[in-house]
Design a protein that fits this description.
The protein has one domain. It has one helix and three strands, in the order E-E-E-H. It has a three-stranded antiparallel β-sheet with strand order 1-2-3, covered by helices on one side. A hairpin with a 2-residue loop joins strand 1 and strand 2. The longest helix is centred in the last third of the chain and has 30 residues. The C terminus is likely disordered.
Length: 64
């Protein structure tokens, strides 16, 4: 399954800042645009993996 997410990216002085609209907490800051894109990808991946594990644990608890 392929899901698309929306990244908002802005330059603020010497820094690039960005966040993913659909996933709260996925926000990053880097000195380069390419660095920001990579950090956003990695942070999104980690957030989705973490949320997936939380859901599994909650489901296991409910089923007991």
């Amino acid at each position: 399954m392929h899901t698309e997410y929306t990244a908002v990216v802005k330059q603020d002085g010497d820094w690039w800042i960005g966040w993913v609209e659909e996933v709260p907490g996925v926000n990053c800051q880097e000195r380069s645009l390419e660095g920001l894109k990579e950090t956003l990808r990695q942070t999104l991946k980690e957030a989705l993996e973490s949320n997936s594990h939380k859901g599994h644990r909650a489901g296991e608890w409910v089923n007991r």
